[in-house]
Amino acid sequence: MVSATLSSCQLPSQCLVGKTINVHFSFSLDGGKLPGLTLQISPRKIRSLLAHPERTPVDIRLLSQVELNIIRTEAYTKIMGRTSDFLLQQSEDQLRNAVDEASVELSLWLEEWRNIVLTEPISQRRVLALQNLQIQHEWATMTLYLKAVASSGIENIAFMTDFQRDFICRAKEAARRHLHYMLQSSSQSSPISSPAATAPTTGSTYLSTFRWTLDYVWAKCAVSVLLVLKLAILLRDPAPSVMALLRDAHRVLEELKTVTVGHIAYFQILQTSIEKCEAALREYAAEQDPGTAPGRSGSLAETEFQGYVPSEFVFEWDFPGLNLKHMPLGWQDLFVNIDNLF
């Protein structure tokens, strides 16, 4: 019924079709569940619905997300469908091609839907829609690269190839931009704003809506903050850079303190992630201090932070990247730590 509805371009103004599709696709992509429906339609044909006489601004937002999730689904299918022997050059080339193609599709999606949204005459709606496009794009980019790395079966960054580490770096940068766009205020959300912009003086437009949002939106917010902090530590970013990310993470926490009704668990995950990262950063910064006696690599706090995977993310979701770790070992440690390598 949904496929027929989309193919014949009949969209109810109540947006129930778009909402149903988004929920099914989101749970399929981010929850590790089987798709609840299959669409017999190419992503861009969805845009024919924009000409429907009963189309609303909410329809535009839902349809853009439907198209984005179809792009993500196709990319994941290609990533998981390549040859299973990740040690072969052929498999690496297949993975690189699949990810590069998906990255181009995501960039085109963002640019084209941004141009559509810019035609919205009401400024507040236009600003909010642009902010959501940026957030959705960075989430899709981050999970794309992490999904690609996860398909190799290697979790220890210290043992990854340059090719795999590059994917981790790209995922981290997408997560950093995701954090930035989540914190934007309505006065700062514009087509020309960038992650390097000055911090807004007013509250986040996006986070202010969390009181009424669904569990999986809270889960995506919590895991995105956890991942950007964890990846920064794992990739050995300079301590001041990690500290800047921590300040932004604290701002997310403060923004959400007033809207945690019914979502206390994810708020606590966010709070615990920040606390564990702070402890790991203190030990990491101490190790970088020339005046500090050299310690054994893999401090207790960092090891605890690397292993922090909330049960909600294990049993309810299928977010990639949570099992990544960085454990460079000397020969004297090899047999002692063999169980923690992969």
Main pleated sheet: none
Number of DSSP E strands: 0
Low-confidence stretches: 1-17, 331-338
Order of helices and strands: HHHHHHHHHHH
What is the average of the pLDDT values? 81
**Fraction of residues in helix:** 55-70%
Task: Work out the strand percent.
Answer: under 5%
Class computed from helices, strands and strand pairing: mainly alpha
SS field, number of helical segments: 11
* Oligomer status: single chain
Shape field: globular
As a whole number of angstroms, the C-alpha radius of gyration is 21 Å
Describe the protein in words.
The protein is 58% helix and 0% strand. The N terminus is likely disordered. With 342 residues, it is an all-alpha fold. It is globular. It contains 11 helices and no strands. Helix 4 packs antiparallel against helix 5 and helix 9 runs antiparallel to helix 10.
In short:
Helices cover 58% and strands 0% of the residues. With 342 residues, the chain is mainly α.
Q: What's the helix and strand layout?
A:
Layout: H1 2-7, H2 16-30, H3 57-81, H4 89-117, H5 123-150, H6 162-182, H7 215-234, H8 239-256, H9 264-288, H10 300-306, H11 311-315
